[in-house]
Amino acid sequence: MTRLERREAIAFYLFASPWILGFLIWTLGPMLASLYLSFTNYDLFTPPQWVGLQNYTGLLTSDGEFRSAMFNTFYFVIIGLPVNLVLALATALLLNERLRGITFFRGLYYVPTLVPAVASGVLWISLFDPQYGVLDAILRVFHLPSIDWLADPNWIKPAIIITLLWGVGGGMIIYLAGLQNIPEQLYESAKIDGAGAWSRFFHVTLPLLTPTILFEVIIGLIGFFQIFDQIYVLTYNHPGEESITFMYYLFQTAFGSETNQMGYASAQAWIFFVIVMAATFLVFKTSARWVFYEGARQ
Domain for residue 276, yes or no? Predict the structure, then answer.
């Protein structure tokens, strides 16, 4: 290396060193520690005792609550994520029109994402109240039976998904940025060729929006896998078999019991890590088939 190249390399590592040190100390270090603890019996107060694969075999073979948590988590990902993506895109399409006062409505739809999860959870508890809640009041207007949303095992999952849709404005803003990045000339050309609104959406808007959709799928996938605060608030910190999720069960194992089963919780965390990485890898692996990048070679 020349003297100039060495100076540039030193400058690069000096500027990058805060992030590198932070990653090594606060991310990689705890990850490796949790990997070791996942093979031990550890309760924070006594030295870890090596138990090998006992934590993993117990989780995968005999822990019924773990299986319920996994089923519920996948339910929210498979059902809630597509609904969230479609609703965010539909809202962005509506707010992409050039109308007077449209910026007010854009801000209005985005505001709920700024509300803390606990505050919005308390708000939804009042809305779901079977006697005084707005939702059941609407049902009574149409002479329909009231629903105990947060106590009925058949309705607790839809109720949680409804609360998750409260923050759809975050995805809406990202879709809106992607929509406004599509060249207007393409729509004009499609109109000249006789393409209608639906044809323009499926042949112009949707293909050019696929990179944004990919980003939203990845972020949404990780977010829905990590559902915790809504469960904690809506179930008053006592979720049942129909509502407990993976992250809540991990929290309960590590901090919600008298034994503080940190080794068992670390094993859960690593199983969760592998599942999320596999799902993310699958999305990236299949993205080449449906994601279109403008200017890329076909």
Answer: yes
For tokens 């040190």, name the residue.
21
CA angle 213, 165, 293 (to 5 degrees): 5
Residue 86 lies in a domain: yes
CB-based burial label for 32 (10 Å; 0-12, 13-18, 19+): exposed
Residue 189 included in any domain: yes
Q: Cβ distance 145 to 139 under 8 Å?
A: yes
Distance CA 58, CA 63 (A): 6
Please, what is the end-to-end C-alpha distance for the chain in angstroms? 39
What's the CA gap between 221 and 255, in Å, rounded?
A: 25
Residue 286, domain extent: 61-290
Backbone dihedral region of 296: left (phi > 0), alpha (psi from -120 to 50 degrees) or beta? beta
CA 256 – CA 270 distance, rounded (Å): 19
Residues counted in the chain? 298
Handedness of CA 84, 85, 91, 95 (dihedral sign): positive
- For residue 160, give both structure tokens: 């949680």
d(CA 33, CA 143): 58
Domain count, the chain: 1
Q: For residue 280, count other CB atoms closer than 10 A to its CB.
A: 15
What CATH code is carried by the domain that includes residue 168? 1.10.3720.10
Residue range 12-53, pLDDT digits in tens: 999 999 999 999 999 999 999 999 999 999 988 889 999 999
Does this model's pTM top 0.70? My answer is yes
Q: Which residues lie below 8 Å from residue 34, measured CB to CB, with a gap of 6+?
A: 266, 269, 270
